[in-house]
Amino acid sequence: MTHSIANTPHPETAGAGPVLGVETSCDETGVAVYDVARGLLAHTLYSQIKMHADYGGVVPELASRDHVRKLLPLIRETLRSAGMTTRNLGGVAYTAGPGLVGALLVGAACARALAWALDVPAIGVHHMEGHLLAPMLEADPPQPPYVALLVSGGHSMLIEVSGIGRYRLLGDTLDDAAGEAFDKTAKLMGLPYPGGPALAKLAESGAAGRFKFSRPMTDRPGLDFSFSGLKTQVLLAYQANAGEPGVKADIARGFEEAIVDTLAIKCRRALAQTGARRLVIAGGVGANKRLRAQLAEAAEGEGFRVYFPRPEFCTDNGAMIALAGALRLQAGLHEDAAIKVAPRWDLESLAAV
Amino acid sequence: MNLLAIDTATEACSAALGFDGKIIERSELAPRRHAELILPMIESLLAEAGLARRDLDGIAVGRGPGAFTGVRLAISVAQGLALGLDLPVVPVSSLAALALDAPDDVAHRDAPILAVIDARMGEVYTGAFRRTAEGLVEAISDEAVGPAEKWILPQNPQVHEAQWCVVGSGWDAYREALAARLPASPSFADGKRYPQARAVLRLAAPRFARGEGAAPEAALPVYLRDKVALTLDEQRAR
């Protein structure tokens, strides 16, 4: 999968050269080339999802083994589609964390060594910062300050973005991430891994109103989430109605509405609390159609603006890493020759650019 | 030819540079610090030799077996370097590199060599080797992973009554089990030796000279332990 996109140029920063971005923090190998002056020049992605499906979830050691097989061919393919060679690169960025340590290390080692060989600067990027900045890959990027809802299989966070590297965590999940809740709920109704997207698909044909689940933690102030209780509600409803026609689809509908409502309520609250008028949606759950529709409607009604990166930039990808890395390299930040990864890494600890 | 070699498959992290007919190296026992150390080691070798990155002609890499993460680190670094410098890569067995460090004096030269690395989980990585006329080593068995007490002598009858040399961390971990499998007590045994980049470089040099260097994507880890998780079907069958 390869795309060429012309972004708004930033003329004052031309000349640093294109930056290669490498993402290997979990089960996708992503590679891209981004140029601050010319925008995204190419990006490719290889997903391991089919391999892990046989195991019912991501197996970290298998993820690492697959990254090391796929990364170099993917880098070559990406450079080819950008119409360049390694000699044209002005820098190399890689996801340094958070994520699976073995998987991170494959991308970090290869990318850091490549930069060293080319004698160009390298930068380790925070995976979440990549997601937060992903909407800047689009033609009409949001200007900070904005609020970002980051929802994926591993995260459910509301973050205030007041500039590059200036992030404040407003709310987080106390247990399951939103995407995790989708996958686990799908699993308990017998849908194959990863069930989240299948559950959302099923919900499209479900009847509204037959099953009503709670909107966790919306009855009290605060921006934190808790989704693990929903699983239990779904399980009880499923057991009580097993075998009835359309029960799976109707439960899926009720479940999806509960999650989406909850996320939307907290987003509106976060905007009110910070005074921001722009909302950015990122992470894999950001591709959910009902979430997009509901937030778009709320935005229109309440006069804020919502930004959705295209679905392929919502899920893990190399483009967001190349972009975040390019902005940090442009600000003069870079790594020394030590290859370092941080499986756990506090987003709020990043240096402002 | 200016050749660079690295090995991070075990507790040892090492890099070696071959130039002007000599080899210089950096090596450190530094568990969990390999990623931090490897590029600075290479920088320091090039500085000592007065060479630039672009003066290199090939990259040799210890491809395992060993610690999974360490093996992948060396391969990933070698791939990144070779891609950036447009160089061929020769992957070398970390067991062969370990075997090359067995003593090469008159008393031991003809002894078969067992290279054995602690593989954790009650197992060892093993390879049997013999010394060649050129002073290098060649395999006389397939490399394998398994419990030390199940290691079997190679088919070759010449080694069945020999006194072996045993090198590698597997000897310290499973000395008694391995000794019971050998025909006689070893003439030399050292459980504190690890695969070193200098040995990787010596084994790779003739292969580079024969034009056997390949594209970096062809250099891949050899783990030996390939079953690392159960599929859903296998979990259900249990």
In short:
The complex is a heterodimer of chains A (353) and B (238). By secondary structure, chain A is α/β, with parallel strands linked by helices.
Description of the structure:
- The complex is a heterodimer of chains A (353) and B (238).
- Chain A has 11 helices and 10 strands.
- With 353 residues, chain A is α/β, with parallel strands linked by helices.
- A 5-stranded mixed sheet of chain A has the order 3-2-1-4-5, with helices on both faces. Chain A has a 5-stranded mixed sheet with strand order 8-7-6-9-10, sandwiched between helices.
- In chain A, a hairpin with a 3-residue loop joins strand 2 (28-35) and strand 3.
- Mean pLDDT of chain A is 93; it is low at 1-15.
- In chain B, helix 3 (94-100) crosses helix 6.
- The model of chain B has no long low-confidence stretch (mean pLDDT 97).
- Chain B has 238 residues and is α/β, with parallel strands linked by helices.
- In chain B, 50% of the residues are buried.
- Chain B has 2 domains: 3-94 and 195-218, 2-Layer Sandwich (Nucleotidyltransferase, domain 5); 102-190, ATPase, nucleotide binding domain (Nucleotidyltransferase, domain 5), CATH 3.30.420.40.
- In chain B, strand 4, helix 2 (68-85) and strand 5 (89-92) form a beta-alpha-beta unit.
- Chain A binds chain B through residues 54-56, 59, 61-62, 64-65, 68-69, 71-73, 75-76, 86, 101-102, 105-119, 337-341, and chain B through 35-40, 42-43, 53, 68-69, 72-73, 75-86, 216-217, 220-221, 223, 228-233, 235.
